[in-house]
Amino acid sequence: MLGEDDDDDDSEEVDSCNNDPEPFLQFMKKMLLLQYLVTVLEGGFRPRNSTYQGRISRFHCDGLSETMVDSYVLAENLDWTILRESLLSMLLGSRKIPYKGLIKSSLSALYNLSQSTVSSEEDSCSDKTQREELHEVDRAIALALPEVEKSTCNVLKKFFIMIMELDSSKRTADQHGLTTRADGVRTPAVEIILDELINDSDVLSSFLKVFDPKWRLEIIVQYFQKYISKNSFQTRSSTGTINTENFDGLLKYLSNSKRTKSIIKKITTEAIQLLLAYGFQAYVMLLHDESQGFSDMLEDVKSNSAVGVCEDLISAFTCLRREDPNTGILCCGKQALITAAATISNLRSI
């Protein structure tokens, strides 16, 4: 579970030996070693993945048909081979590494470190007794430990983002027939993350804050996908289907009382509110980045106008309230609704 600490031995050792600096030093050494290892993995993965993604994007942007794209990609399959031979890919595919155990342990560490970082930022005097004892041991350790924890948390975020990017690249390679038996079969990291969040919904709010907007939106969309049946996408109109593989499609799907009534039997109203609120927040942040010209924008962020998304968000919350009148709107939900209403007002006044 995410709330559990897989480093209990280290934590107990540190807590029980406040008068001895050695446990703190050993703890920081492990975190610094982890930072170094992830940095090495990143140095080998980023250039390879950028080259691979650049080639795939170029073929599609040239207006080629899927058949022609496949032919060109197959002719240059060395790109995927290079990515497959990255240290990150070899580490995750090694039979000597318990892959799911690694992901779950890393998730637990990321969650605990992120909570520790948030607590220290919100209240610099929290855990005052421990800090006083720590100062008595070594002032340098007292100053260094929070920064080491924060930097380790950021490195773990990078680690997960790299794994998810590798999964995405592998999925693209598989679609073009570039993968072989040598690539093995591995559960995508997002699915493991979702399983952990579903099993421990109490940490949903805290954990969604960890990732950047792009991957937060991806996780939220796939979370809903777990509970939406494939044959429920059809609409009554002749216009076809609702694409629930992007955020604005999910909002349209939830803007229907019958579908909302069905999904709240599987997900609590509070969880749906959290997912919608954080998803909308990520959507707005990505939209802002696009307007600044800096973002590698997701397709689903481009797919609908901001006004339409805001209207669908309000409609989705209206359906939630109608189907579950006994549950109030959470604070994050109210903030999302206020932002949506203000956005509609501002854009329509232009």
Automatic annotation (TrEMBL):
GO CC terms: nucleus; Smc5-Smc6 complex
GO terms assigned for molecular function: transcription cis-regulatory region binding
Signal peptide from the UniProt entry: none
InterPro entries hit by this protein: SNI1
Coiled coil feature spans: none
BP GO terms, sorted: DNA damage response; negative regulation of DNA-templated transcription; negative regulation of systemic acquired resistance
Protein's UniProt name: Uncharacterized protein
Organism: Salvia splendens
